[in-house]
């Protein structure tokens, strides 16, 4: 295993941390703070907030021949980027160069949108190309804003570093190739004392014999993943995920405003939470960090003095059973009843082979002698899956379901915990209960419209007297007095 480079810190800033000139200036001063501590930051940025959604909408218009609607959206984005650049950069040459680069990117984007509109067909590959402009633009702008404030930034095109397969829309990174690319393109910059700035979320698929790969993306929310891949590939001392909340909280603060900050949490718990819907982290983020035991911090760019959440291999024990509650919405339950001739063995294998063939992950399974129920969130693959399933079984679907998941390592060995959970939500109709695939979570399926109410009840039950070594109880007291 490579030697850790403790002086390197990967700092990933999400969409709200680069949403406008004010936010980008805050980001610059946070990065300058790390430089003052003699650390070497590498900065990974998301697209400005809501830009990815707008680009996807533009691509979708273009795919339906709605050329003018697509170009109009692109135009609003062009204006937003040009204005933000002007607010950030005053040095004339630098601003001229930045404006030129922004115009160049939007001219290419508009060409692309016209091309898609002309054929009226949007492929996943072209969609990735369209959506990549968000991070390409934000990273360029942030690099220029840093230079303006004497941070020795160097813009790096993420596509030369984050090398992936060609699974457009959710590409799988090639970690050894990324490590080699980081050594070739990023480490030399750090050795020169520069601060590399690159976009998250995007990568490229190299085609043999060509240098410029084809643009890919890592899936929605994938900039966190880029941060972890860069941290893992360089064997950095820390990975910081800067966002708009004080850290990982006991549940989504949009549902429970009095949710508490979790001070420390294990890699396993954080991964489980992310997988089961806590949007604060992309589910794949933790893996590269775990492999090299790199601590990950979740921090608030609007409140940089707050110590955030530390995700680590061995957090201290916690007196409360759970650390956090997550919800994953928009799930479908599929009840699959075997056709007569297939009742014998082989039925389950055949069912799972179908999901596997369509790259569809199953969240929960329950079985009886003649049927199996599974829950999935891959709505796109459903028509193809159901066509295959109907060849071997009778199939029923129930959509608009949600999975509630309570996570905590300390539930291991606590007896009667499920009784406590279900008494807290006795008023809610529970459809399926997890059979405990993982020892650190308890999950169950309910109707989507019951999610907020269930989470509020569970939060009240399990976080009314929180363990102060793990949870930020001081903030709670301030909030209670306010
Ligand atoms: P970014 O753009 O910085 O990547 P995201 O919007 O992807 O930020 O993630 C941050 C949001 O995640 C928060 O604003 C919060 O509403 C939501 N969230 C959901 N669950 C949690 C949780 N357990 N802890 C903290 N935030 C959560
Ligand atoms: N901009 C991308 C998205 O909105 C990636 C990210 O922000 O993490 O999904
Ligand atoms: Mg995010």
Q: How would you characterize the overall build of this protein?
A:
This protein is of the alpha/beta class. The protein folds into 2 domains: 5-244, Carbamate kinase (3-Layer(aba) Sandwich); 324-481, VC0802-like, CATH 3.30.2130.10. The chain contains 16 helices and 16 strands. The chain has helices spanning 21-36, 51-63, 67-88, 92-119, 124-131, 133-148, 175-185, 187-191, 223-234, 267-275, 286-291, 347-357, 382-389, 417-424, 451-462, 473-481, and strands at 5-13, 40-45, 153-156, 195-199, 202-205, 214-217, 236-243, 264-266, 296-300, 309-312, 324-338, 362-367, 371-376, 393-407, 432-433, 441-447. An 8-stranded mixed beta sheet has the order 3-4-2-1-7-9-10-8, with helices on both faces. Strands 12-13-11-14-16-15 form a 6-stranded antiparallel beta sheet. Strand 1, helix 1 (21-36) and strand 2 form a beta-alpha-beta unit. Helix 2 packs parallel to helix 4 and helix 7 packs across helix 9 (223-234). The protein is globular. The mean pLDDT is 92. Adenosine-5'-diphosphate binds at residues 14-16, 46, 221, 243-245, 248-249, 251-254, 278-280, 324.
CATH topology of the largest domain: Carbamate kinase
Shape: globular
Reported for the largest beta sheet, the result is: 8 strands, mixed
* Assigned CATH class of the largest domain: Alpha Beta
Strand order of the largest sheet: 3-4-2-1-7-9-10-8
- In the CATH hierarchy, the architecture of the largest domain is 3-Layer(aba) Sandwich
> In total, how many domains does the architecture comprise?
2
Question: How many angstroms does the end-to-end distance come to?
Answer: 50 Å
């Amino acid at each position: 295993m490579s030697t850790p480079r403790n002086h390197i810190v990967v700092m990933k800033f999400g969409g709200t941390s680069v949403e406008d000139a004010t936010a980008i200036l805050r980001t610059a001063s946070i990065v300058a703070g790390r430089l003052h501590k003699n650390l070497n930051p590498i900065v990974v940025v998301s697209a400005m907030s809501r830009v990815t959604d707008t680009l996807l909408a533009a691509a979708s218009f273009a795919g339906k021949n709605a050329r003018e609607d697509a170009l109009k959206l692109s135009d609003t984005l062009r204006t937003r980027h040009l204005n933000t650049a002007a607010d950030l950069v005053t040095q004339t040459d630098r601003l001229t160069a930045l404006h030129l680069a922004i115009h160049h990117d939007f001219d290419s984007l508009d060409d692309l949108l016209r091309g898609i509109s002309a054929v009226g067909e949007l492929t996943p590959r072209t969609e990735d190309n369209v959506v990549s402009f968000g991070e390409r633009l934000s990273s360029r702008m942030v690099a220029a804003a840093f230079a303006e404030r004497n941070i020795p930034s160097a813009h790096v095109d993420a596509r030369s570093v984050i090398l992936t397969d060609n699974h457009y829309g959710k590409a799988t990174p090639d970690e050894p190739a990324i490590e080699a690319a980081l050594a070739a393109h990023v480490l030399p910059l750090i050795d020169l004392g520069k601060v590399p700035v690159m976009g998250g979320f995007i990568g490229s698929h190299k085609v043999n014999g060509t240098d410029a790969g084809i643009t890919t993306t890592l899936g929605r929310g994938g900039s966190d993943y880029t941060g972890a891949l860069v941290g893992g590939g360089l064997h950095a001392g820390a990975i910081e995920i800067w966002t708009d909340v004080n850290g990982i909280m006991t549940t989504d603060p949009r549902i429970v405003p009095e949710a508490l900050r979790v001070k420390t949490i294990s890699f396993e718990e954080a991964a489980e939470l992310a997988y089961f819907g806590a949007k604060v982290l992309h589910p794949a983020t933790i893996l590269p960090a775990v492999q090299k035991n790199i601590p990950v911090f979740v921090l608030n760019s609007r409140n940089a003095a707050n110590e955030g959440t530390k995700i680590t291999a061995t957090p201290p024990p916690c007196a409360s059973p759970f650390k956090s509650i997550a919800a994953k919405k928009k799930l479908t339950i599929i009840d699959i009843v075997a056709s007569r001739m297939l009742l014998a063995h082989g039925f389950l294998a055949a069912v799972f082979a179908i999901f596997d063939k369509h790259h569809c992950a199953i969240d929960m399974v329950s079985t009886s002698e003649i049927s199996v129920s599974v829950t999935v969130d891959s709505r796109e693959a459903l028509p193809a899956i159901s066509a295959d399933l109907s060849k071997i079984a009778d199939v029923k679907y129930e959509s608009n379901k949600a999975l509630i998941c309570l996570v905590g390592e300390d539930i291991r060995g606590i007896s009667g915990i499920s009784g406590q959970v279900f008494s807290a939500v006795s008023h809610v109709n529970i459809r399926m209960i997890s059979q405990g695939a993982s020892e650190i979570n308890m999950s169950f399926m309910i109707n989507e419209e019951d999610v907020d109410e269930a989470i509020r009840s569970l939060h009240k039950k399990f976080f009314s007297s929180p363990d102060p070594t793990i949870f930020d109880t001081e903030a709670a007291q301030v909030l209670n007095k306010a």
